[in-house]
Amino acid sequence: MSAPYKAFKQGLTSCLCCHQLIILPTTGRCRCPRCGARVYARIDGSRMLTWALTITGALLLLPANILPVMTVTYLGAGEPNTIISGVTQLYNTGMWGIALVVFAASIAVPVMKLLGLALLLVQIQLRIPFDPLQAMKIYRVVSGIGRWSLLDLFILSILVALVDMGFVAQVDAGPGSTAFAAVVVITMTAARTFDPRLIWDACDGDQGHTTVVPETAHRSGAENG
Amino acid sequence: MEPVRSVEPIFWQRACHECDLLLSGHLAPPGRALICPRCHCTLQRGTIRGIYPTIALSLTGLLLFVPSASLPLLTFSLFSLGAENTLLNGVQALYQGGFIWLAALVLFCSVLAPVGKFLLLLFLCCGSAWGLLDRPVAHTVRWYQLIKDWGMLDVYMLGLLVALVKLQDLGKLEVEPGLYCFGAMMLVANLASLSFDQNAIWQRLAQRRAARSARR
User: Fold this and answer.
1) Between A219 and A44, the higher pLDDT residue
2) Residue B1 has what pLDDT?
């Protein structure tokens, strides 16, 4: 297999914002002359940041699932609901379609996102042989589905406004919802900081980017200090 | 302290932004998409009529925002007690319950980001006609890319539908005209971001720059 003709080997890189091809200066980073976005050979510290955000997201999943998300009070009686108990309640009342939608959006999507990102990172770092096209498919699914997990919070905000009748019926938000919002925001950011070009670097056996990253990190530290 | 000076933009080539493959530069023919041969990601989508549909769609979206934010979306009544849901009073209820961050997130994703997207698209497409605005337009592209993912009207719409079914046997739930406006705004928002072609903007700016240097 002939080596692919990659921009990085020619000292070029493309701006991730406007896709302009740029000659990379020796510092390894600059501003895009066309749109002003930061340009790197590979996103600075992409693997480290994505790991950090993935682990944070996984830890935050615990309070999001243990703490109550909403309290439904109906005729004076009510109990706090977690995400899972809300889904099982929907299922028990016969609304299995909605239960499925809510389950997919608020449990399956965040967990699958975190697992997918962890899988990609492990594959890249341990250099396990893998099919890059399949990895790209995982990456695209992970970055595409993230927004749908906000569904539960939108439902919550709608219900809080709609069902507000004091003693008769009331829906209140619970502390778990803030944790869940944090999970969604953090996993979306994690998917953004992951640089898919690293997948292809690992697949081609290129080490080039590793020489650039520590140098730029050092340089920016010196500039700030 | 000017590292950018050594940087020259190159017009005859492009690199795939997902796999870094160098490709000789072509633009997609109208109505077709340019796809990377290696990682199959979409590099660019050629639009049929340039930027004009985007202007029309974002204006429509801004107009539709007025009724969908001011009219109630759903009303719910139980034993002669009633409450209604508008785009903003859910945020207000969360804020009053002490969930400030949650309220801010919902406000940003369901109101600020979609409206911001419409405004930025309008500014991009109209502003690219004036030479004076070259720099702001170029920087607006960056802002647009930043908030693009955070406009979640379609997710909010699904949330409304779920709430609609969920509350149906609890009390009397009615669909209000605001919901239709909101649905239309969601459709228009998706169409506007689909119809937007960054390349059309960059080509306009590049043409003007070429004309300016030729005059000199």
Assistant:
1) A44
2) 38
Q: Are residues A29 and A57 in the same domain?
A: no
Average pLDDT over residues A208-217: 41
ipTM over 0.90: no
Q: How far A96 CA sits from the closest chain B CA (Å)?
A: 11
Which CATH topology does B48-199 take?
Answer: Butyryl-CoA Dehydrogenase, subunit A; domain 3 (1.20.140)
Q: In the predicted model, what is the mean pLDDT of residues B43-54? A: 78
Q: What confidence tens digit (pLDDT) does each residue in A56-78 have?
A: 999 999 998 888 888 887 777 77
Do A49 and A110 have their domain in common?
yes
* CA-based radius of gyration for chain A: 22
- 3-state secondary structure (DSSP) of residue A31: strand
Contact B81 A160 (CB under 8 A): no
Determine the pLDDT at residue A4: 67
In chain A, residues 2-21 whose CB comes closer than 8 Å to chain B: 4-8, 10, 12-14, 16-21
pTM for the predicted model, two decimal places: 0.83
* Exposure on the CB side of residue A76, measured as CA atoms within 13 A: 0
Alpha helices per DSSP H over chain A? 46-66, 83-92, 96-103, 109-126, 132-145, 151-162, 175-193, 197-204, 208-224
Answer yes or no: do A28 and A50 share one domain.
no
Closest Cβ opposite residue A20 in set B9, B18, B158 = B9
B144 at A interface, C-beta within 8 A: no
Domain boundaries, position A217: 1-41+207-225
Q: Are residues A75 and A146 in the same domain?
A: yes
Q: Where are the domains of chain B?
A: 1-46, 48-199
